[in-house]
Design goal:
Length: 414
Amino acid sequence: MRLSSLLVACAIGLLVVELGLRWLGLPGGGDRLSAQRLEQRLAESAAADLEQAQQQAGGAFSLYGLVEPSPSRDVVYELKPHLHGGFRGEPLRTNRWGHRQDDEPEIDKPSGVWRLVGLGDSHMFGWGVAQGESYLDRVRLTLAEEVAARADLAAVEVINCAAPGYNTHMEVALFEAECRAFSPDLVLLHWIGNDSDFPHFLRPVVEATQGEVEATAAGAAEIATARRGPLSRLRTYRVIAELLAGREHQPESVGDAADEMDPEQIPDLLPHSQRTASKEVRQAARRQYRDSVGISGVLRALDRLRELVEPTGTPVVVLMLGTGNDDRQAVAEHAARLGFEVVDASGHFARSLERELGGAATRQQWQASYQIPEDGHPSAKAHERYAEVVLEVVRRRLAAATPAQAPGAATGAR
């Protein structure tokens, strides 16, 4: 009698837990992210003051308040223009174009001006370093002094089109939509290992019918059940299984953990770790971008970049930190085949640290010198090293350079 009562009590307890997990949507709960709520979040994000937004987000790794949806579906999102405040404890400002820099270059390039346009993600953006400390800011300031002595150049302008969480497809899409209108004399694309991942934010498929969503969910559930057995239908089972496997239950995540965002305070964009939307909704959003991810997506983006610069003959430099693994090697080889210059900064980083330490550096010493402890982004010292590498490339090209003429029609920049 006691045993049966105990079993009934356990069953009731498990039922309560299961219902609670289903109501919360953990994991794989129903879609609680309505189109109306997305529109409301978009309005809140667009109106948010940067300082207030960071306080509301409450996390050092939040992008809330920095970004807004892009007019281009391929670009997905962009930095807001005219930001002025603090981010991760450091000053941050953007100009009228939404670029993290203080100067305001005109779209129509003045005579005698030589321009570099940078395409990248949070590394080039300068995540975790102060305004003026990113490597492109350092390049800009150094070249301004050096070019002052040249009679054939009026100025050198460096335009930082990078934004946190971008992949290569987005970087090239932004160049096509906006940044090529600045008539660059050199394009610098900074490639890192997670640039083959999904965009940090996705556009939700809000136009899908309820039947399509249900069909997608049913198909995904059928496949999952076939792979894991009937118990996998229970959310309680999945949470307990993950805990027993020694893993804390966390939302699905892709890419750099330091680029995460508070899921309760997003604009009209869906983070790949969104916990208030079902797995099926995230998968539906991801399917929109499946051709832009993976190494094949990177190579296609590089092909498109080659098509975009070919009419003007604008050279492209691909900056990397090591080419040791298969993905990096594939990107480097493909870029070289396209006629791009590939620059591996790892040797300069290593030699500089060896001189500083008086010998070969360990992995721990490398990380302590070149990475921000909390998230692994490049430290201020790493930005110094990147600037030295880029300056060497730019000086070599400037030695025989004549600023390119602006194209007849400069369109796309907002």
